[in-house]
Design goal:
Blueprint (H helix, E strand, L loop, with lengths): L2 E5 L7 H9 L4 E5 L2 H8 L5 E4 L6 H6 L5 E4 L7 H11 L4 E5 L6 H13 L5 E6 L2 E13 L5 E6 L5 E5 L17 E5 L4 E16 H6 L4
Parallel strand pairs: 1-2, 1-5, 2-3, 3-4, 5-6
Antiparallel strand pairs: 6-7, 7-11, 8-10, 8-11, 9-11
């Protein structure tokens, strides 16, 4: 199974996160345009830099010129992150972690959250930002959990129904439409949290450091 890390042009991930993920077989590093500036500052050599190259610093572009595969894609219908994901899919990469996709541009953050939904079923995606891990899921899902671990759950449609077990505040065939109702900071009370999601997708957000501590990532 081929895995990759995508570094976008938002708030840079910590270098120790990238090093941790590489040890977990996320062996390919792809920078989305200006994300290469973050890689350079961390002393990381990406395998690919992809985008329309309008955000990357010229000095960075020159620095990586003979070290990295640089793929310029002018297509404006896709964001640079989407270009990276389509490239990864063509390379038969089955799993990607998005980093640097949040920051001081709320519109960019919102767009990148939507990308997780847009690419659902095409590639296994996670976002790691600050202390959080975000995934989209549907159907029946079993999550190994640590005691007291926080689970936050968000839906998008009134037609999407969620049932849970192993959570302090159980969900019983209810919808959690964004902007109306949510299950923020729910708490695991069992070693496995079970979610059954019918008719749609939801976001599950967990604490990255807790998952690492409990050997769940």
């Amino acid at each position: 199974m081929k895995k990759c890390i995508i570094i976008a042009n938002g708030k840079p991930p910590r270098k120790n996160l990238i090093e941790f993920l590489k040890k977990k077989n996320y062996s390919t590093i792809i920078c989305a345009d200006g994300g290469a500036d973050s890689a350079k500052k961390m002393g990381i050599i990406p395998d690919y830099i992809i985008g329309d190259l309008d955000s990357i610093n010229k000095e960075t572009l020159k620095y990586f010129g003979n070290k990295t595969h640089i793929v310029k894609i002018n297509r404006q219908n896709d964001t640079d992150v989407e270009k990276c994901l389509k490239f990864a899919i063509k390379k038969k990469i089955s799993e990607a972690i998005l980093t640097g996709v949040t920051g001081d541009r709320l519109d960019h953050t919102f767009c990148n959250l939507g990308i997780v939904l847009k690419f659902f079923g095409k590639i296994d995606l996670k976002i790691i930002a600050e202390k959080s891990v975000l995934i989209a899921c549907t159907g029946e899902q079993y999550f190994p959990a640590g005691p007291g671990e926080i689970f936050s759950i968000y839906g998008f449609s009134t037609g999407t129904k969620i049932t849970s077990s192993g959570l302090k505040y159980p969900l019983k065939n209810i919808s959690l439409p964004f902007g109306e109702k949510e299950s923020t900071s729910n708490i695991a009370i069992a070693k496995t949290v079970f979610l059954k999601i019918k008719n749609g997708l939801i976001f599950v957000i967990r604490d990255f450091n807790t998952m690492k501590k409990n050997g769940l990532f």
